[in-house]
Design a protein that fits this description.
The protein has 16 helices and two strands. Bound molecules: zinc ion (ZN) (2 copies). Its EC number is 1.14.19.1. It is a multi-pass membrane protein.
Length: 358
């Protein structure tokens, strides 16, 4: 019987009891016992956090598909943003070189606010950061405007713990469009509210910087995402107001949004599963390119406590490069990394055979 089925039957990922144990202590029995060891115990390198570990005991109830309740305000705002971004593309040829460089820089800056900040630092606690780096990341995160860090992390922990069920906010079983952007345009499924509301978020509630951002989120995002990126090129090198607004604010914002969303849509649908063939998340290099390192998604869901979200270090992974640079400066520390041996063992046990070591 495959390990994941035994885990499902045992009904809990917090114990290592074997439910099929025959009375004798045979070698077979020992092997079965090893198979039922919960996923996180095989490499418990981050004992302080368990809320992002997959819980196979939670499954959807049988029944008709959920009814969609549209949130028209979000639908209209998203449509307008994407129209503005398309118009922004047509303005690129008339932009000054500095404006283009500034837009690209803002893309990486706000991208890191999601990947190195909301994702790897605050949602998964895969490394620790000193105050100057946390300040940098909270500003960058506010520029990315993808909900505040607290809400983003709660959604993201639910996404890992209840992957591909109705309690997963962007459940990829509901299709590409839903997992990409549709989930933001309809009311949350009741299961998301119920299970997400029970997650332990005490670490972030105790984080003063995260709570400060949450309290002042609206003025913060207006300033960081729209006002500042428009004023800087206009004031400092005489770019036109329209070019600054449509390229550095709207277009840059829409590109970062879609890059992040591709992790939830494309990286759950297209690619190989070398580490765990029993889950949907996949390895997708193109997504990694756009999402500054977050496309190694089969690895990431298999080992959510690894700060690199990939086996391959800096390879197509600007975020890991950035965190390592911060570590060299003494601003990041305690980076959690899964051992090579544990990765290889996992590939052998649950991989789809596409890994070069297979
Ligand atoms: Zn994650
Ligand atoms: Zn995912």
């Amino acid at each position: 019987m495959p390990a994941h089925m035994l885990q499902e039957i045992s009904g809990s990922y917090s114990t290592s009891t074997t439910i099929t144990a025959p009375p004798s202590g045979s070698l077979q029995n020992e092997r079965e016992k090893q198979k039922t060891v919960p996923q996180y115990l095989e490499e418990d390198i981050r004992p302080e956090m368990k809320e992002d570990i997959y819980d196979p005991s939670y499954q959807d109830e049988e029944g008709p598909p959920p009814k969609l309740q549209y949130v028209w305000r979000n639908i209209i705002l998203m449509a307008l943003l994407h129209l503005a971004a398309l118009y922004g593309i047509t303005l690129i040829p008339s932009c000054k070189l500095y404006t283009c460089l500034f837009a690209i820089m803002s893309y990486y800056f706000s991208g890191l606010g999601i990947t190195a900040g909301a994702h790897r630092l605050w949602s998964h606690r895969t490394y620790k950061a000193r105050l100057p780096l946390r300040l940098f990341l909270i500003l960058a995160n506010t520029m990315a405007f993808q909900n505040d860090v607290y809400e983003w992390s709660r959604d993201h922990r639910a996404h890992h713990k209840f992957t591909e069920t109705h309690a997963d906010p962007h459940n990829s079983r509901r299709g590409f469009f839903f997992s990409h952007v549709g989930w933001l345009l309809v009311r949350k499924h009741p299961a998301v509210k119920e299970k997400g509301g029970k997650l332990d978020m005490s670490d972030l509630k105790a984080d003063k910087l995260v709570m400060f951002q949450r309290r002042y989120y609206l003025p913060g995002l207006l300033l960081m995402c729209f006002i500042l990126p428009t004023l800087v090129p206009w004031y400092y090198w005489g770019e036109t107001f329209v070019n600054s607004l449509y390229v550095c604010a709207f277009l840059r914002y829409a590109v970062v949004l879609n890059s992040t969303w591709l992790v939830n849509s494309a990286a759950h649908l297209y690619g190989y599963r070398p580490y765990n063939k029993d889950i949907e998340p996949r390895e997708n290099i193109l997504v990694s390119l756009g999402a500054v390192g977050e496309g190694f998604h089969n690895y990431h869901h298999t080992f959510p406590y690894d700060y690199s979200t990939s086996e391959y270090g800096w390879y197509v992974n600007f975020t890991t490069f950035f965190i390592d640079c911060m570590a060299a400066l003494g601003l990041a520390y305690d980076r959690k990394k899964v051992s090579k041996a544990a990765v290889l063992a996992r590939i052998k046990r649950t991989g789809d055979g596409s890994h070069k070591s297979s």
